[in-house]
Amino acid sequence: MSRLNESRSTTLQRFRKLGLRCALAPFAFVVVLFAQSGEENFRKLREEMVRTQLGGSRWGAQAVREPRVLEAFRQVPRHRFVSEALVPYAYEDRPLPIGYGQTISQPYIVAKMTELLEPGKSHRALEIGTGSGYQAAILSQLVSDVYTIDIIEPLGVTARERLATLGHKNVEVRIGDGYYGWSEKAPFDCIVVTAAANHIPPPLIEQLKPGGRLVVAIGNPFQTQRLLLVTKGSKGPRDIRVQDIMPVSFVPLLSGSSGQ
Ligand code: SAH
């Protein structure tokens, strides 16, 4: 090939590439617009969820009013914590399956538990039952550090990856039996157990700071349990006050407490 022909063919190739880019540009634009409108739709669904589910009273229970908690629910994309098939239901008023027989609680329950913890900006929080990582993501918006434990390894590993992808840098996920808490990271200002136990795990009381708050569902699995708020006083591990908040229905806390 002569030099002239060679330069003609490279020029032709450049034009073709440019032509291809120009032809694809509108598609890329549409894809970006589509993604943006999708995100905007999810934002609207979150706003609606906050207004109707969290703001309304349920089963005679109080609406969630703490503005910081409501803002966290506006921010965290709940649809990123469920499988693709369940994305259309992510903002509905119900729990959703997350695999391994486990569920992500309905938004109101997550919000009520979070509000009961009275999470402060400088607080260290412990969660037992990472599951999808949604409750941990909500807490990560509200406190300084979140420690979360799950006994089912694949759930914990997936949640760890998901939380990292979504930029929740202040969350640490551990695989293990949460009944025993996380003594290396204790004491905690607040502890939430997102599975039902048949008694309050003593290690969790021990790992709570004086003045700290623990929220846990107590009762028999596969029946309605009671959501309890446990507050610790300053006169030692027995100085606790237990308040019965409302009926709830959680999956059971596995092993440790119940031997399951
Ligand atoms: N908080 C989760 C939902 C929790 S479902 C979310 O926001 O998605 C209950 C979780 O508790 C399940 O993932 C289950 O594996 C976990 N679990 C049950 N028993 C446990 C135990 N002893 N220690 C730690 N995690 C436990």
Q: Key features?
A:
260 residues; two-stranded antiparallel sheet; single chain; 37% helix; Rossmann fold; 9 strands; 2 domains; binds S-adenosyl-L-homocysteine; alpha/beta; 7-stranded mixed β-sheet
- Any guess at the CATH architecture of the largest domain? 3-Layer(aba) Sandwich
The helix-and-strand class reads alpha/beta
CATH topology of the largest domain: Rossmann fold
| Strand adjacency order, main sheet | 5-4-3-6-7-8-9
Oligomer: single chain
Q: Supply Rg.
A: 24 Å
Low-confidence stretches: none
- How large a portion of the residues is in β-strands, by DSSP E? 15-25%
Provide the CATH superfamily of the largest domain.
Answer: Vaccinia Virus protein VP39
Largest sheet: 7 strands, mixed
User: What small molecules does the structure contain?
Assistant: S-adenosyl-L-homocysteine
Give the H and E element order: HHEEHEHEHEEHEEE
- Number of helical segments with 4 or more residues: 6
Protein model, in words:
The protein is α/β, with parallel strands linked by helices. It has two domains: 86 residues, no CATH class; 147 residues, Rossmann fold (3-Layer(aba) Sandwich). It has six helices and nine strands; from the N terminus they run ααββαβαβαββαβββ. The protein has a seven-stranded mixed beta sheet with strand order 5-4-3-6-7-8-9. The protein has a two-stranded antiparallel ribbon with strand order 1-2. The longest helix has 52 residues. The radius of gyration is 24 Å and the shape is globular.
